[in-house]
Specification:
It is built from 11 helices and 10 strands. Helices cover 48% and strands 17% of the residues. The strands form 2 sheets. It has an 8-stranded parallel beta barrel, surrounded by 7 helices. A two-stranded antiparallel sheet has the order 2-3. Helix 1 packs across helix 10. It has a single domain, classed as TIM Barrel, CATH 3.20.20. It is of the alpha/beta class.
């Protein structure tokens, strides 16, 4: 796969993201305008719930609106989960990126994590549910695989690496562990890499890894996403230069 081919594919698999403390309606409207490129639209925009209305006003129907819940701390609070998911859906979110209470997993409280995941699935209904396992905080491959497996078994539509708010975000090693669990499950579950992905070279690592494990036919917006902001400009630079 050439860089040009990869860049064209990746734009359509991008969750164009802005989760900054200084976001405003205007910056989110600008994000939504950037989501439509001469080479196709991104799969989604990923924003805080309070900006969903602004995004709805700006976006065309084919671009999904993703938002975050239990973010970024991954609290062990089922009432918070319920409140935030219900609010997000009411506001018009198509996709919910929910942070697993990963500290509970690390402390051995797997049953609570299972309850959380099942509740998240129930609350999301037919909306797309992405579970952020915060792989950089889980440290070991064993823990990453365990978290991914739990999310898959609970019916998550995607397993997502990271919030992007911790020292270690997405890594190829974590991606490999998650993709292996998805492959082993035999279920229709997708993968999302997020955090620290800034260039075509960064994004292509995850795309190539997914192709090698899941096969080229698996690569579409229902199965594979990259969550990032600045990477879009880099992809467009490659395409505009024609290399």
């Amino acid at each position: 796969m050439t860089d040009t081919e990869a860049a064209q594919i990746l734009i359509r698999l991008l969750d164009l993201t802005s989760l900054n403390h200084d976001d405003t309606k205007e910056t989110i409207k600008d994000l939504c305008r950037r989501a439509v490129t001469p080479y196709g639209a991104t799969a989604a925009v990923c924003i805080y719930p309070e900006f969903i209305a602004a995004a709805l006003h700006e976006l065309k129907d084919n671009i999904k609106i993703a938002t975050v819940v239990n973010f970024p701390d991954g609290s062990a609070d089922l009432k918070r989960l319920e409140k935030e998911v219900r609010q997000a859906i009411k506001l018009g979110a198509d996709e919910i990126d929910a942070v697993l209470p990963y500290r509970e997993l690390l402390s051995g409280n797997e049953n609570f994590c299972i309850s959380f995941l099942n509740k998240a699935r129930e609350l999301c209904g037919d909306k797309t549910l992405k579970i952020i396992i915060e792989s950089g905080e889980l440290k070991s491959t064993v823990n990453i695989k365990k978290a991914a497996r739990m999310a898959i078994e609970a019916g998550a539509d995607f397993v997502k690496t990271s919030t992007g708010k911790t020292p270690i975000s997405a890594t190829p090693e974590a991606a490999n562990a998650i993709l292996e669990e998805i492959k082993a499950s035999g279920k229709e579950v997708g993968f999302k890499a997020s955090g620290g992905i800034k260039t075509l070279e960064d994004a292509k690592k995850y795309l190539s890894l997914a192709v090698s494990i899941m096969g080229p036919d698996w690569i579409n917006a229902k199965h594979f996403r990259i969550g990032a902001s600045s990477v879009l400009n880099n992809l467009l630079e490659h395409l505009n230069k024609g290399y």
